[in-house]
């Protein structure tokens, strides 16, 4: 399997990262069909496998260290491949270390709280990777495209005055900063699919019986708001790509490339955190030695006092 170096990750990720402070116009700045020129699909398979293994080993250390957590935010329009990306990229990690939550239309109880409340309930713990399949960003996307959803939130009149969206961007940025200050990295991924690719994927969902369950007529109605969504995404990327939690625009028309890109961003994040297995304190080390002595004394007649050590010695010899 091919090696992955920090330099390669850097080259792959660099063009996808939204520079904080830059003004984004999606259609002009990001090509949904982009692939890194030096990488073809069959080589890509190997890199994805290596990435998956790296993720698994980093995640084990992240859990053992129990100090940092990672929140992965996935945003996209319908059929851009959120579910498949999660399934493939996270296929190697220990399920105990990962949480996934899909956010739907908010319930009455959720609407009875401030807009970030329901997202805060689902944050990962230290040592975990938490995935938000849709996220707090819906609050500046679907809610912006459909103003009646904002009405349902029953905000007081003062909070409806002025630029609601600018204020939400600031509140989201502050919240993510707070998370980082507390040990939680926020990794933001927008799967950027073209309008034509969405049409193709919807038709596949209609034409193939095993995909019918994925299709809902509402998805086509939502598609009619395409341009409004593109504007809302562009504004979101412009105002919420920060030094502490930058956005990555993942070209999503080629699923194989999208998966490699997402894997690369995650591996890069974990490399930066660089979690370590904790070293036992002197007292705990002494307790380990005492336990070893006791277990060695319990060796039955003819058995090696420490069979594990014996095996290691033989393997090394
Ligand atoms: P899939 O269709 O692949 O199963 P999905 O994420 O599209 O996954 P759905 O149940 O189809 O899941 O849709 C969830 C819906 O909930 C989306 O249309 C989304 O825009 C909507 N939604 C999410 N968050 C909010 C919110 N805060 N306010 C209003 N609607 C929201
Ligand atoms: Mg849907």
What is shown here, in short?
The protein is built from 16 helices and 5 strands. It has 317 residues and is α/β, with parallel strands linked by helices. It has 2 domains: 268 residues, 3-Layer(aba) Sandwich (Rossmann fold); 34 residues, no CATH class.
Number of helices: 16
**Contiguous uncertain segments of 5+ residues:** none
Indicate the CATH class of the largest domain. Answer: Alpha Beta
Percent strand: 5-15%
CATH H-level superfamily title of the largest domain: P-loop containing nucleotide triphosphate hydrolases
The CA-CA distance between the termini, in Å, is 27 Å
What does this structure look like?
The structure is a single chain. The chain has 317 residues and is of the alpha/beta class. It has 2 domains: 6-273, Rossmann fold (3-Layer(aba) Sandwich); 282-315, no CATH class. It is built from 16 helices and 5 strands. Strands 2-3-1-4-5 form a 5-stranded parallel sheet, sandwiched between helices. Helix 1 (6-13) crosses helix 14 (255-273) and helix 3 (41-65) packs parallel to helix 14. The model has no long low-confidence stretch (mean pLDDT 96). Bound molecules: adenosine-5'-triphosphate (ATP) and magnesium ion. Magnesium ion (MG) binds at residues 78, 219.
């Amino acid at each position: 399997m091919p090696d992955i170096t920090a330099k390669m990750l850097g080259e792959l990720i660099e063009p996808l990262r939204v520079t904080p402070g830059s003004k984004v116009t999606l259609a002009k700045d990001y090509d949904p069909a982009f692939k890194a020129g030096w990488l073809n699909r069959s080589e890509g398979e190997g890199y994805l496998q290596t990435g998956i293994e790296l993720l698994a080993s980093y995640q084990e250390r992240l859990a053992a260290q129990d100090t940092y957590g990672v929140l992965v935010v996935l945003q996209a329009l319908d059929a851009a491949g959120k579910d498949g990306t999660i399934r493939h990229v996270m296929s190697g990690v220990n399920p105990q270390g990962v949480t996934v939550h899909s956010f739907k239309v908010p319930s009455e109880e959720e609407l009875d709280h401030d807009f970030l409340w329901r997202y805060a309930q689902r944050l990962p713990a230290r040592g975990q990777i938490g995935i938000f399949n849709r996220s707090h960003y819906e609050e500046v996307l679907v809610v912006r495209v459909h103003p009646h959803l904002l009405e349902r939130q029953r905000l007081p009149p003062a909070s409806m005055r002025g630029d609601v969206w600018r204020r939400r961007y600031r509140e989201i940025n502050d919240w993510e900063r707070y998370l980082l200050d507390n040990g939680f990295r926020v990794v933001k991924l927008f799967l950027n699919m073209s309008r034509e690719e969405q049409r193709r994927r919807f038709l596949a969902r209609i034409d193939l019986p095993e995909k019918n369950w994925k299709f809902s007529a509402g998805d086509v109605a939502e598609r009619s708001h395409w341009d409004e969504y593109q504007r809302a995404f562009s504004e979101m990327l412009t105002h919420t790509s920060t030094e502490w939690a930058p956005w990555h625009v993942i070209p999503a028309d080629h699923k194989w490339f999208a998966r490699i890109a997402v894997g690369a961003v995650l591996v890069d994040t974990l490399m930066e955190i660089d979690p370590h297995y904790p070293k036992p304190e002197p007292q705990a080390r002494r307790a380990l030695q005492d336990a070893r002595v006791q277990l060695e004394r319990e060796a039955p007649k003819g058995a090696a006092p420490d069979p594990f050590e014996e095996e290691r010695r033989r393997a090394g010899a």
